[in-house]
Amino acid sequence: MAEFIDANGKAWTIKITGGDVAKVGSALGIDLGNPSQAFAKVLGFTPALINVLFHLARDPNDRRPTNPERFADGFGAATIEAGTAALEVALTDFFQGTRIGADFSKILQATKEIETERQSQAAEAWAKFDPRELVKSLKNSSGNWADKQELTHGR
Questions:
Q1: CB 2 within 8 Å of CB 87
Q2: In what order do the strands lie in the sheet with 2-5?
Q3: pTM attached to this predicted model
Q4: Which one of 23, 106, 138, 147 has the minimum C-beta count within 10 Å?
Q5: What φ, ψ does residue 14 adopt, rounded to 5°?
C-alpha cells in the first residue's frame, strides 16, 4: 500500500486489487496487468497518471474520490511526483513475488539509473552554460544576428 498527499493536504492511499486492474483497463484502456507498459503510458503524461490515480485512490476512510476535476485540482508538480512514486509502489506490491513483479522491478531500477545519469548530465551542462558564448555562436552562424536584434534580459 502506498500513500501520497495532494496539494490541498488531503492524504490518499493507492492499493491495487484485481478489480482495480479490470476497472482501469475498461475505463482508461491502460492494462495494469502489464505494469511495465502501464507505467510507460502514464510516466510523463500527467492526464493519464491523474486518471489512473483517480480510479485507484482511497482516502483514510477507504472512500474513493467522486469528482475527477476536484481530485485533479489537488495536483501540482510535487503531487505528480508523489503520485507517480505511490503508483510505482502499488504496482510493485500487487505483483510482489511474481515473475512479472521481478521484471517490473528490474525495469524500474534501470529507468531510475538512466534518469539519474540524465539529471547529472543536465546539471553538468547547465553549470558550463555561458550565455555570452551562445550569443557569440549565434552571431557567427547567422550573419551577425545578434547585431540586428536587441538582446535584453527579462523581456
A1: yes
A2: 2-5, 11-14, 57-58
A3: 0.71
A4: 147
A5: -120, 115
